[in-house]
Design brief:
The complex is a heteropentamer. Chain B is mainly α. Chain B is 69% helix and 0% strand. Chain B has one domain: MetI-like (MetI-like fold). In chain B, helix 7 packs antiparallel against helix 8. In chain C, helix 12 crosses helix 13. The termini of chain C are close together. Chain C has two domains: 71 residues, no CATH class; 213 residues, MetI-like (MetI-like fold, Orthogonal Bundle). Chain E has twelve helices and twelve strands. In chain E, a hairpin with a 2-residue loop joins strand 9 and strand 10. In chain E, helix 4 crosses helix 5, helix 4 runs parallel beside helix 7 and helix 5 crosses helix 7. The two termini of chain E are 32 Å apart. The chains are: A alpha/beta, B mainly alpha, C mainly alpha, D alpha+beta, E alpha/beta. The interface between B and D is medium-sized, with 26 and 33 residues. The structure holds adenosine-5'-triphosphate (2 copies) and magnesium ion (2 copies). One magnesium ion (MG) binds next to helix 1 of chain E. Chain B: It is found in: Cell membrane. Chain B: Belongs to the binding-protein-dependent transport system permease family.
Chain lengths: 328, 332, 315, 508, 334
């Protein structure tokens, strides 16, 4: 983690909320509200958080698939925040994304083989027989059979579609892959295959990943560092083992405690946090989590905690214990 | 409707003992037992096209599966061949006038009779296929191509390009087809290329609007985003990802237009603006003066009418089938 | 959105300006003018008479001047005088507009109310005999030139009832109103209903395979609800587009129908006016049609947003 | 029984006339609807089909007389006649009308197509309110025929030509009510008509229906009492007869000659051989058989007998090259002429045949092209929009043109001077033969009918031999009306003169 | 299986195939299972093994063509759904049996407001005013923890995050309080806190209404936490069925065992480096060209000659069924 491959500074993305016949703007969704992080070369940054907190928006902003409202994105040191479409195109080879919704991100009228091979064709990396061979290789890598290359997306199961997306992202051998829940639809054995594949690729080629997932176990396996988001902000970011061993933000703690354990004898399905998830349109004042936090103090309602270092590069945004969060 | 639903609800209270109900009606999605037992797997697979991979087998299979479409294709092919080999098929010179045999009924000598000039109707229809198909295919292709380009560009790029293109097509649309045709023929004289252009121009906004509408919707889909993330150029995205997904309405539209352009030429002829005499076009054969003979010599209008209808049917049936074949979800 | 509307309105004006230029100069490009035609009708040409007449009508002036005269008049609501009838152009045009508007409206209504349901049925029953039958019937609408359809209707009515519906501007009875407006409208509508039906079918087929249709089924929604509430609403965009276009081109279709049914509407009038090179009539009428078309397009665009919430027009 | 009063005559009109001023028009589309509004000085007797000098009767003039060595034509006018707006009719109105026609007055017609008719008139003089005289340069007996045409109504002085185009005022049996372009023309009975008991009808309504099939259907369905006169084509006539067997139909020549205008001022038709060859190649019977199922007439410039007064005898006609009965022999001769001019089986002559884009023009042109094929001429049809037709002809921008010439009155003066005299505007070919022109004057001054006929035949023959404007055929057309319509006579040698309709009544 | 009256769902020998141009897909091949009132049955298995198709077969929503239910029976509360006609089936769907689909993005109608979609589900089966239904819809959205449910109800699917859409789907499926709920990966798009809430919600409702639940999931943690019984599918067939305890304690099929081994766990004792996970080698066979006999054999370490013959389901006591010739040896070898 010597040099930063991706550097995101104070990223914000606001969506207008419109209503009425004239569709006047009545509010703003603070989908991403000031997020900063870096991903080093060969590093995996896990990004977890509740659903709707803006993970996908971060992911898509990084690739400039949505135009950030403000902030800066630097890839390999170069600021790509304001590059034109054309100027951006060469950079696309070095960053790829696996979308959260595999089916919708596959062109229904193209065969799986064409979809996976297309990036190679577009960038003129292969054609004809070679293209086919390389596509077949990619299929095998993600655990699909080459004979499935001529099938259409709707003929695949959910998990298979997700693997097609992964294969497409891998095709260009990018330096950064943004994985937006790439294994959520996979069964554990294939999930294991895919994660192993990602890990192997990283070891061989020094890929970097921004890895978004809900499954903390998976994140735990693949990440070097983990960031936890809540309502458009990063509330905690730390090296993986540090975070899992010593979570400081109450939300992180709730997350970890909510992970279902694969042991039927140890049932504990009582949710640890309750209450309504606040809306990104009217985020609660102060600490956004205070509405659901068991340890909320008066201060939390008014004062917004900054992301502060609590030692060892473990940053947390919580007012408890002088801003170092709740100790274990 | 809702009443009947509630009615059947009451049959299924929690824990009611099983009461299998016989159902004589045929069902849509599921299959009843009797049917299940007799499923002919081989037949079903054959229907799904399993044995028809590659080459002629596949074509034959598709023809079997889309009988109407195949019929359409056969008709269209027949017409195209007729147009090409008109000189060999026609039994008489379509232009030679012979007062002696004017208005002859259909007979062995004149299969479709003769017109008031004594010209052989069959030969005129055969030769007329050249002009009518040229008008139909030519103007559809011309208008369609430009329309697709305009529609894709404006729908995909949106923004000011869209606004400008839409305004231009507004302008084209605001000039009614026949007005345009009138002006064109008045300015340039009625000739085949002019008729084709006059008919093609109003097609442009039609096609471009359909394509644009589809493009607008498609643009928002994640797979387009996916294509962008690969670093694909906008042109390629438009052509490879957007266009194929607008193909279905396009094919339907184009084939429908193919038919209607032939009819438009007929309407132009009716207004005296079509392909000039003496060259036969189906539309001209059906035009005003023929109307006067509709009663006394019905063959003068029946046969060109059938020719037009056949061509329209052929094009459209084939178009429908093509749409179905190109729909990946239909391929089983 | 408001800004968008304002901009759209402005652009509509730009379009109209464009149309005015195009029609003005197109008409001038066409060889021959009213004077030539008058003399053609009279069968002789006298250069002095001709020059006099051209001067009288002001068509000897430079084009730009003529354009300015026309367009400034148009904006003031002064449409000038018809060259042929020498009556105020507005007076000639106005009474014909409601006739054609009624015809066009009815034709569209007919086309949509037949075409859309049939398209839905044919898509839902894809591959069945019903589908084939509906398609073939609708094709017959596309394959019959509308003047033949019109003549057929007239001939049949004479043969069967010994009666023929001739246009009556002030229908006395309901039956006459039907004969005056509905029958010709149906003849026009039949053709465009065929197109509407086919587009509906194709668009529906696309939508019917979507997952959310399955969801609707899973809720227990009836076929009708699935087909019309869920599928049709998703499939309607291209249909609206086509209907919008048909609306614009209806004028063309109406020319022939107005001729066959002898209806004194604007469509046929426009053709006559072009034949006579009656510039004031043609120019102003085309402008009025253009206003309708441009507004129709605008409405179609707005309908997109109504039917598809994903489409939003922002500034 | 006798004539009955009342009823509105419903008729369709074939197209929308540009305006309502008969003097400014040159198509019977104007005469039919507006002739009932006016009166002439004299008129052809409306119930005799064949117009001739003998059938001319007084109208606004009570009597007339040739005086001053046949160089003055004096009319005694009918007293007490009122214009439709109530103003009295006087000799001043007559003078105004003819001064304007001669281009001598302040007020001008927009167009004045029949100016040449009055070339021999020096001036018009009046004597009191009820006498008017036409003073001629030389005797012209046929002037009276011209004045009896439906084309020669008397206009009021006090109405401007412009108003006459939109709202004509006449003295005739019917008053103008309204004219909606492309829609309808309505006339109503003139209660103050000078002729006691006329008209019988309460009014006339014309619905404009340009589409012939629709119009005929409407007639068959009983929507109309009468078709537009002379507008029913032969095939449609059969239709009418089968569908409405009671309808009364007549087929008459309409004195419209279908002819070829030849551009003899530039190659190839400056070569008389080629012109002659073309004339020889014509198979006129074939034209007639195709266009009219045999019901047409072959003739020269003048409408053939018996309907026509001036047509030359058959024997004489057949001596003209191309009129002989043996078409093949004619064509052999034509081929020789062509070969003489340098053409043959290996060297065809390419020719453009221009015509207007209307079936009655186009169809014969198509036949012509086919016939010319037999003598090494490859014709190509060049259809021209009406607007461009005369400018194109005037520019001499054509080789052959197919044209229709309608003759308002069956009189040589009208057709010779109009179509063949050197300066005439309607002499499209600019055919100019001073010798023949002298003959025109000779026949024009001849008062002895029999002598004049002979002169006319010779001229006609010469004109055909010069192939200036070869006549192909004279058309015939049908008119139909319901059996209860009485008192309609369709003129058999003109289609411009028979529409006063004051004697028409309905037996309903 | 003593008391049949307790059964909500009984599936016998269900067979669903796809007739495709590349051959016959036996997506569901002879699968039988039962669900009791209030019971949760989990279905796990390799991706593409036919879980969703099984679920769709229960709803009779397999796309036809190319799919077809070709055999077996599905009785819901004693009525064989496969013999109902379409109208009767409609009355059942969404009412007595409802389903949460796997793809929340595409399973919601893009041009209908979320609220309306729920309202529709409710009003199809319950007589009530539009207002009441709307209130229920908002209430359901609140139940599935969607913030500002009243506002969200007026929004369109594309305005919601993936997780919200999934929750909206759940709200819709639960709105009519069905006797049997099929949840096809209902929580894949949710973070674990919400997942816990939702699962708790589903289980609550289940308890309250006695709803039988068929839970299709990849998350064995979820299985362990919620299900009473589990069936494991492989290549269209049921290869193992057991109570959840028995399965986790003693998987009898090598594939199940492989699955168990692949489960990643949250490292309580944090390994600082990335850890490779155990995986089952090889790929899932094509459903068209299934190997002779046991479909798992080619990937199985324990495969023997006999595996070319299809192993029948064998009862190992307590309703623990497994289809493996070497079930007895699995524990020792692994
Ligand atoms: N195009 C859009 N317009 C308006 N709001 C949007 C848009 N896209 C996303 N949002 C809103 O932005 C917020 C963040 O959405 P995002 O998809 O980034 O969440 P997420 O963290 O990926 O959630 P999940 O884990 O459920 O996928 C949500 O409240 C969502 O409703
Ligand atoms: N419409 C279809 N046409 C052809 N084959 C299909 C179709 N739908 C599904 N299949 C096939 O049926 C098999 C089972 O699919 P299914 O969706 O049930 O898998 P699944 O177990 O739900 O997988 P996942 O966990 O990945 O969702 C797959 O191999 C798939 O390829
Ligand atoms: Mg997301
Ligand atoms: Mg699935």
């Amino acid at each position: 983690m010597t040099e930063a491959l991706l550097e995101v500074t104070d990223l914000r993305k606001h969506y207008p909320v419109r209503a009425g016949v004239l569709r006047r703007q009545v509010g703003t969704v603070h989908a991403v509200d000031g997020v900063s992080f870096t991903v080093g070369v060969g590093e995996t940054l896990g990004l977890v958080g509740e659903s709707g907190c803006g993970k996908s928006t971060v992911a898509r902003s990084v690739l400039r698939l949505v135009e950030p409202t403000s902030g800066q994105i630097r890839l390999e040191g170069e600021d790509i925040t304001h590059l034109s479409k054309a100027a951006l195109r060469p950079h696309r080879r070095s960053m790829q994304i696996v979308f959260q919704d595999p089916f919708a991100s596959l062109n229904p009228r193209m065969t799986a083989g064409d979809i996976v091979g297309e990036p190679l064709a577009v960038h003129g990396l292969a054609s004809g027989k070679e293209l086919e061979a390389r596509t077949a290789k990619l299929f095998e890598q993600v655990g699909l059979r080459p004979d499935q290359m001529r099938n259409f997306p709707h003929q695949f199961s959910g998990g298979q579609r997700q693997r097609i997306c992964i294969a497409r992202a891998l095709a260009l051998g990018p330096r950064l892959i943004v994985c937006d829940e790439p294994v959520s639809a996979l069964d554990v054995s294939i999930q294991a295959q895919v994660i192993n594949l990602l890990i192997d690729l990283q070891r061989q080629h020094g890929f970097s990943y921004l890895f978004i997932a809900h499954d903390l176990a998976v994140v735990a396996h693949i990440s070097h560092r983990v960031a936890v988001m809540y309502l458009g902000r990063i509330v905690e970011i730390a090296a993986k083992d540090e975070l899992f061993r010593n979570p400081r933000h109450p939300y992180t703690q709730a997350l970890l405690a909510s992970v279902p354990i694969a042991n039927p004898l140890a049932r504990k399905l009582a949710p640890l946090v309750d209450g309504d998830v606040p809306s990104p349109v009217n985020p609660p004042s102060g600490c956004a989590f205070h509405t659901r936090c068991r340890f909320a103090m008066d201060r939390c309602r008014t004062e917004r905690p900054a992301l502060l270092d609590a030692g060892d590069g473990h940053q947390v945004a919580c007012l408890l214990n002088d801003g170092t969060g709740r100790g274990q | 409707m809702r009443g009947s639903l509630r009615g059947s609800n009451s049959h299924l209270p929690l824990g009611e003992p099983p009461s299998p109900r016989p159902s004589p009606r045929k069902r849509g999605e599921g299959e009843d037992r009797a049917h299940m037992a007799t499923i002919d797997y081989d037949l079903e697979l054959r229907r799904a096209g399993m044995h028809a991979t590659g080459g002629w087998r596949r074509v034959l299979f598709l023809a079997q599966r889309h009988v109407l479409g195949a019929a359409g294709l056969v008709i269209m092919t027949a017409f195209v061949l007729t147009a090409i080999f008109a000189d060999f098929i026609a039994r008489y010179d379509p232009l030679t006038i012979d007062a002696a045999r004017a208005l002859a009924r259909p007979s062995l000598a004149h299969w479709m009779g003769t017109d008031s000039f004594g010209r052989d109707v069959f030969s005129r229809i055969i030769h007329g296929s050249r002009i009518s198909l040229a008008v139909g295919i030519g103007s559809t292709a011309l208008g369609g191509t430009i329309g697709v380009i305009v529609g894709l560009t404006s729908g995909y790029l949106s923004g000011w390009v869209d606004l400008v293109f839409q305004r231009v097509s507004d302008v084209l649309q605001a000039l009614p087809l026949l007005v345009l045709a009138l002006i064109m023929t008045a300015a340039l004289g009625p000739s085949l290329p002019n008729v084709i252009i006059a008919i093609a121009i109003p097609l442009i906004p039609t096609v471009s609007r359909v394509v644009r509408a589809n493009t607008l919707a498609l643009r928002e889909l994640p797979f387009i985003e996916a294509a962008k993330s690969i670093g694909m150029s906008e042109v390629r995205i438009a052509l490879r990802h957007v266009l194929p997904n607008t193909l279905a309405p396009l094919i339907v539209l184009a084939t429908a237009q193919l038919g209607s352009t032939i009819l438009t030429e007929a309407s132009l002829s009716f207004l005296g603006l079509g392909i000039p005499e003496p060259y036969p076009s189906w539309g001209r054969m059906l035009s005003e003066s023929a109307a006067e003979y509709a009663r006394t010599a019905p063959w003068l209008v029946i046969f060109p009418g059938i020719a037009i209808s056949l061509a329209v049917f052929g094009a459209n049936l084939f178009g429908d089938a093509l749409r179905d074949i190109l729909d990946p979800r239909q391929r089983g | 959105m408001f800004a968008y509307l304002v901009r759209r309105l402005f652009l509509m004006l730009v379009t109209l300006f464009g149309i005015s230029v195009v029609i003005f100069f197109l008409l001038r490009i066409v060889p021959g003018n009213i004077v030539d035609i008058l003399f053609a009708a009279a069968g002789y040409v006298d250069p002095a008479d001709k020059a006099n007449l051209e001067k009288e009508l002001g068509i000897d002036q430079p084009l730009v001047v003529q354009y300015w005269h026309w367009i400034s008049g148009f904006l003031r609501g002064d449409f000038g005088y018809s060259y042929v009838s020498e009556k105020p152009a507005l007076q000639e045009i106005l009474p014909r507009i409601p006739i054609t508007a009624r015809l066009a409206g009815l034709a569209l209504l007919f086309s949509a109310s037949i075409g859309i349901p049939l398209g839905v049925i044919s898509a839902v029953k894809q591959g069945t005999r019903l589908d084939y039958a509906l398609r073939v019937v609708s094709l017959s609408g596309l394959s019959l030139p509308s003047f033949w359809l019109g003549l057929l209707v007239l001939t049949a009515s004479v043969a069967m009832f010994g009666q023929m519906p001739l246009f009556n501007p002030n229908p006395q009875s309901f039956g006459e109103a039907v004969a005056t407006y509905c029958i010709p409208a149906m003849v026009v509508g039949f053709r465009s209903s065929a197109l509407t039906m086919r587009i509906t079918r194709s668009s529906m087929l696309e939508v019917l395979r979507q997952d959310y249709i399955r969801t609707a089924r899973a809720k227990g929604a009836s076929d009708a609800a699935v087909n019309y509430q869920h599928a049709l609403k998703n499939a309607i965009l291209p249909v609206i587009t086509v209907i919008g276009i048909e609306a614009a081109f209806l004028i063309g279709g109406l020319i022939v129908t107005e001729t066959v049914f002898n209806i004194p509407g604007v469509a046929r009038f426009l053709v006559e006016a072009i034949r006579w090179r009656d510039y004031p009539i043609v120019q102003n009428l085309v402008m009025l049609i253009a206003v309708v078309v441009v507004s129709a397009n605008f409405i179609v665009d707005m309908l997109y947003a109504v039917f598809d919430p994903r489409i939003r027009y922002t500034d | 029984g006798g004539p009955k009063q009342g009823g509105i005559l419903r008729m369709y009109h074939r197209d929308s006339p540009g305006n309502a001023s008969i003097h400014e028009g040159a198509t019977y589309s104007l005469n039919v609807p507006f002739m009932p509004v006016f009166n002439n000085l004299v008129i052809y007797k409306q119930d005799v089909a064949q117009n001739s000098m003998d059938t001319i009767v007084p109208e606004l003039a009570e009597s007339w007389a040739w005086v001053n060595d046949n160089k003055t034509l004096t009319f005694k006018l009918r007293p007490g006649v009122k214009w439709h707006d109530g103003k009295p009719f006087t000799s001043a109105d007559v003078k105004c009308t003819f001064d304007m026609l001669m281009g001598k007055s302040q007020q001008k017609f927009r167009q004045n197509p029949r100016k040449t008719w009055y070339d021999q008139v020096n001036d018009i003089s009046t004597d009191g309110d009820l006498e008017v005289s036409f003073n001629l340069k030389r005797p012209q007996p046929s002037l009276l025929a011209l004045l009896a045409s439906g084309y020669t109504p008397v206009y009021p002085c006090h109405v401007s030509p412009g108003d006459m185009r939109t709202h004509p005022i006449g003295t005739g049996p019917f008053k103008f009510v309204e004219f909606k372009a492309n829609e309808s023309i309505k006339l109503t009975r003139n209660p103050d008509y000078w002729r006691e008991g006329r008209p019988y009808l309460d009014g006339i309504e014309l619905t404009i229906i340009p589409n012939r099939s629709t119009a005929i259907l409407a007639f068959v369905a009983g929507k109309f009492d009468m078709t537009f006169p002379t507008e029913v084509s032969i095939p449609l006539l059969k239709d009418v007869k089968s569908q409405a067997p009671n309808a009364v139909c007549v087929v008459e020549p309409n004195n419209v000659a279908t002819n070829i205008i030849v551009n003899s001022s530039s190659p190839p038709f400056d070569n008389i051989d080629i012109r002659r060859a073309m004339a020889l190649a014509l198979d006129r019977k074939a034209f007639i058989s195709i266009m009219f199922e045999g019901q047409g007439d072959v003739g020269g410039t003048m409408l053939p007998q018996p309907n026509g007064l001036w047509g030359m005898p058959k024997e004489m006609l057949e001596t003209i090259p191309g009129y002989g009965p043996d078409v093949n022999a004619n064509r052999e001769e034509a081929k020789k002429l062509m070969q003489k001019a340098g053409y043959g089986p290996d060297k065809h002559l390419a020719v453009k045949i221009s015509t207007r884009n209307i079936p009655v023009y186009r169809d014969p042109a198509v036949i012509l092209i086919d016939q010319l094929k037999s003598i090494y001429i490859d014709g190509e049809l060049d259809v021209v929009e009406t607007a461009n037709w005369f400018p194109k002809i005037a520019r001499k921008d054509y080789m052959l043109g197919l044209n229709l010439t309608g003759n308002a009155v069956d009189d040589p003066d009208q057709s010779f001077y109009e179509n063949y005299s050197c300066g005439s505007e309607r002499n499209y070919t600019n055919y100019c033969n001073k010798e023949i022109e002298k003959l025109f004057d000779v026949q024009s001054q001849e008062t002895d009918i029999a002598k004049r006929k002979k002169l006319v035949w010779d001229i006609d023959k010469k004109l055909q031999e010069d192939v200036a404007r070869p006549i192909i055929f004279h058309a015939r057309t049908g008119s139909c009306w319901q059996p209860y319509v009485k008192g309609v006579t369709v003129m058999s040698n003109s289609s411009y003169n028979g529409y006063r309709y004051e004697d028409v009544w309905m037996d309903k | 299986m003593a008391d049949k009256s307790d059964l909500v769902l009984e599936v016998k020998n269900l067979k669903t195939v796809f007739f495709t141009n590349s051959g016959l897909f036996k997506a569901v091949d002879d699968v039988s299972f039962t669900v009791r009132r209030g019971e949760t049955l989990a279905i796990v298995g390799e991706s593409g093994c036919g879980k969703s198709v099984t679920a769709l077969s229960l709803m009779r929503l397999v796309p036809d063509p190319p799919g077809r239910i070709v055999g077996g029976s599905v009785s819901l509360e004693g009525t064989d759904l496969l013999t109902l006609d379409e109208a009767e089936m409609r009355a059942v769907r969404g009412n007595r049996i409802s389903m949460i689909f796997q793809e929340p993005m595409t399973s919601l109608n893009p041009v209908m407001r979320i609220g309306d979609q729920i309202v529709e589900a409710v009003r199809l089966h319950r007589v009530m005013s539009a207002k009441e239904a709307r209130n229920i819809a908002v209430e359901m959205l609140r139940l599935v923890r969607i913030p500002e449910p009243a506002r969200r109800a007026r929004e369109y699917p594309h305005q919601l995050s993936g997780g919200m859409r999934q929750r909206a789907m759940i709200a819709m499926a639960l709105a009519c309080r069905p006797a049997l709920l099929i949840a096809d990966e209902p929580t894949t798009a949710l973070d674990v806190t919400i997942q816990a809430q939702i699962l708790a919600l589903i289980l609550d409702l289940q308890k309250e209404l006695g709803t039988g639940l068929v839970l299709i999931t990849h998350d064995l943690g979820v299985v362990a936490q919620t299900a009473q019984r589990v069936i494991v599918m492989y290549a269209g067939r049921k290869v193992e069925e057991a109570s959840v305890e028995a399965l986790f304690a003693d998987p009898k099929h090598p594939y199940t065992r492989g699955l168990m081994a692949s489960i990643p766990s949250v490292p309580a004792s944090g390994a600082a480096t990335q850890a490779r996970l155990n995986e089952i080698p090889g790929t899932v066979p094509s459903l068209v060209r299934l190997p002779q006999g046991c479909a798992f054999a080619p990937r199985c370490k324990l495969a023997i000659k006999r595996c070319e013959e299809y192993p029948p389901l064998q009862d190992w006591g307590g309703g623990h069924l497994a289809a493996c010739w070497r079930a007895a040896d699995v524990a020792e070898v692994a």
